[in-house]
């Protein structure tokens, strides 16, 4: 059985829980079952500044290769294109990775909140939570606090700020609808789908 190896270089645990589930889900839609996916996380702590510095070191020192390299760093109110260029400039030509950038703008918690009905499903609520998500709000903690409040309103205590529910939320959300509202999310799903399609056809 052919296995697809996915390396992850991530900013924190909120990225890890959510993005691994999304990769598995998109792969499944491409006809690649979860048992064919091998996930290896290389970094999941440190925040944006440390993550970029450690990503540079990772690229220089990583000796193994994977089919896909998922790099996730929040835009932090920088333009998507700028952050993507910032990530890709560290890559070296001899590395044979298929790179997919996940750049939540401004932060990963906005993606968690992209489909309020998914949050309701995860917590077994019959009616949708009253989550009011602005089209875009550049505030360091706005989305973190909104996610925490939504989970608390559902009657749960988010010990990790909501990251512990990342897998369940990613599995329940409507990817198409979230992509319509969030361009950076759509970029990630589209790029991942294209990479998986190429890998299947090789």
Describe the model.
This protein has 202 residues and is an alpha/beta fold. Helix content is 49%, strand content 12%. It has helices at 13-29, 47-61, 80-88, 108-112, 116-122, 142-153, 166-172, 175-181, 183-201; strands at 4-10, 37-43, 68-72, 98-102. It starts with a strand and ends with a helix.
| Average predicted confidence as pLDDT | 87
Q: What's the number of helices?
A: 9
* Whole-angstrom Rg: 17 Å
User: Which structural class fits the helix and strand makeup?
Assistant: alpha/beta
Instruction: Provide the domain count.
Output: 1
Order of helical and strand elements: EHEHEHEHHHHHH
**Largest sheet descriptor:** 4 strands, parallel
| Residues in β-strands, percent | 5-15%
What distance separates the N and C termini?
15 Å
Residues in helix, %: 40-55%
Low-confidence stretches: none
Adjacency order of strands in the biggest sheet: 2-1-3-4
What's the shape?
globular
Write down how many β-strands occur, each being a DSSP E stretch of 2 or more residues.
4
Write the layout of secondary structure elements.
Elements: E1 4-10, H1 13-29, E2 37-43, H2 47-61, E3 68-72, H3 80-88, E4 98-102, H4 108-112, H5 116-122, H6 142-153, H7 166-172, H8 175-181, H9 183-201
Parallel strand pairs: 1-2, 1-3, 3-4
Helix pairs in contact: 1-7, 1-9, 5-7, 8-9
């Amino acid at each position: 059985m052919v296995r697809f190896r996915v390396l992850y270089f991530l900013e924190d645990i909120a990225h890890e829980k959510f993005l691994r589930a999304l990769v598995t889900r998109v792969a499944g839609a491409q006809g690649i079952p979860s048992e064919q996916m091998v996930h290896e996380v290389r970094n999941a702590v440190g925040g944006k500044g440390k993550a970029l510095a450690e990503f540079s070191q990772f690229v220089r020192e990583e000796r193994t290769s994977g089919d896909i390299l998922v790099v996730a760093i929040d835009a932090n109110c920088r333009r998507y294109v700028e952050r993507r260029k910032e990530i890709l400039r560290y890559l070296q030509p001899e590395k044979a990775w298929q790179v997919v950038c996940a750049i939540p703008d401004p932060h990963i918690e906005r993606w968690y909140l992209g489909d309020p009905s998914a949050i309701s499903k995860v917590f077994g609520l019959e009616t949708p939570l009253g989550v009011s998500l602005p089209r875009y709000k550049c505030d360091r903690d706005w989305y973190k606090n909104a996610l925490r409040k939504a989970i608390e309103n559902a009657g749960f205590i988010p010990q990790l700020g909501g990251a512990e529910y990342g897998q369940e939320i990613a599995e329940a959300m409507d990817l198409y609808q979230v992509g319509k509202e969030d361009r950076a999310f759509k970029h990630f799903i589209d790029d991942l789908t294209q990479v998986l399609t190429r890998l299947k056809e090789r």
